[in-house]
Amino acid sequence: MPTLILVRHGRSTANTGGVLAGWTPGVALDARGTAQAAALPGRLRDVPLAAAVTSPLQRCRETLAPLAAARPELPLHTDERIGECHYGDWSGRKLAELGEDPLMAVVQQHPSAAAFPGGESIRAMQARAVDAVREWNGRIEREHGPEAVYLMCSHGDIIKSLVADALGLHLDHFQRIHADPCSVTAIRYTRLRPYLLRLGDTGELAGLAPHEDAPGAGDSAVGGGAGAP
Q1: In CA terms, which of 45, 133, 168, 226 is 20 to 30 Å from 69?
Q2: Coil, strand or helix: which one is 37?
Q3: Is the pLDDT of residue 218 over 60?
């Protein structure tokens, strides 16, 4: 099955302003985020991409714009299922203010029980994102083969929830995962299990190009692997 490269959008005006943006319109990349996005094509230059999928939100579309310009042949799709969590009444509010709300402790310590007033639950957010990845994995494999690599540009909580799913972690542990703006997280999916290849990587990415000894190319014995005692 394909390898998925998850890119968190570059730093946004909401990030620097300490605001929970959610689906608030007009949230753009700030100057640093624009520079991060401009560097993304160079970081990915050695990685063949079958397709790119983006959240519909402006900050994600702006993050992928330089990559799309550098690779005009790259198919670019939009999928609302990898859009930010619907924070409802919390959208657009200062994080410092929200920190005083009793719900914030639930969001941080027991997220599987958290639902945002006027919005969605964190469980629902993870479910739609996982469904999107499963469907895109199948589509990319059918159209480009099992060794294909594709990219999704999404948001921090979405990426964290997808990593938790890939690692078999309960959703209550997803707050232990972190991905910086414009960082790359890579998951190699196979028939039996996913492999987390990168988490929150802000460096070069040439190692993500397909190669014969990629994880999942053949399942080794328990405890196996070259050089294992």
Answers
A1: 133
A2: helix
A3: no
| pTM of the predicted model as reported, rounded to 2 decimal places | 0.88
Closest CA to 146 of 72, 68, 216, 60: 216
For residue 229, pLDDT over 70 is answered with: no
Extract the runs of DSSP E, i.e. beta strands, from the chain: 3-8, 52-54, 76-78, 149-154, 184-189, 194-201
**To 10 degrees, the CA torsion angle through 197, 6, 171, 164?**
-10
Burial class (CB within 10 angstroms; exposed 0-12, middle 13-18, buried 19+) of 111: buried
Contact between residue 196 and residue 7 where contact means Cβ atoms under 8 Å apart: no
* Of 157, 70, 63, 156, residue with least CA distance to 114: 157
Rounded to 5°, angle at Cα 158 from 152 and 164: 105
Distance CA 4, CA 146 (A): 11
Q: How far apart are alpha carbons 220 and 156 in whole angstroms?
A: 33
